[in-house]
């Protein structure tokens, strides 16, 4: 028998398949998706299961950032401009959001 919490989790959880690898993106804030004010700046946790990932990455999402604040003098094809697939996935829910990896090196 499956517990009720499995069908309706108490916190937002997304199972992701990025580049053929499965990962989990989640929040500890149970009101994140039901209270629009909490969607301004919030934290999501990302775990990919890769050997290189020692601990869960803590990502800060800012949904009210401005695209013109990004550094435009960089070559768009540079490695720094490439974004990890998880950032693209996050932007499918929160278009235009910026993602801060809080000191963790982004992994692709």
From TrEMBL:
Protease keyword on record: yes
UniProt-recorded Gene Ontology molecular function terms: cysteine-type deubiquitinase activity; K48-linked deubiquitinase activity
GN (gene name): Mindy4b_0
Family under the similarity heading: Belongs to the MINDY deubiquitinase family. FAM188 subfamily.
InterPro entries in alphabetical order: MINDY-3/4_CD, MINY3/4
Residues that span the membrane, as ranges: none
Pfam families: MINDY-3_4_CD
Name of the featured protein: Ubiquitin carboxyl-terminal hydrolase MINDY
């Amino acid at each position: 028998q499956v517990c009720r919490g499995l069908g309706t989790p108490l916190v937002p959880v997304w199972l992701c398949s990025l580049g053929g690898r499965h990962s989990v993106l989640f929040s500890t804030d149970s009101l994140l998706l039901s209270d629009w004010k909490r969607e301004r700046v919030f934290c999501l946790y990302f775990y990919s299961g890769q050997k290189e990932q020692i601990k869960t990455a803590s990502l800060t999402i800012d949904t009210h950032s401005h695209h013109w604040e990004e550094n435009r003098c960089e070559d768009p094809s540079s490695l720094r401009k490439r974004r990890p697939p998880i950032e693209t996935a996050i932007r499918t829910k929160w278009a235009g959001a910026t993602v801060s990896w809080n000191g963790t090196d982004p992994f692709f």
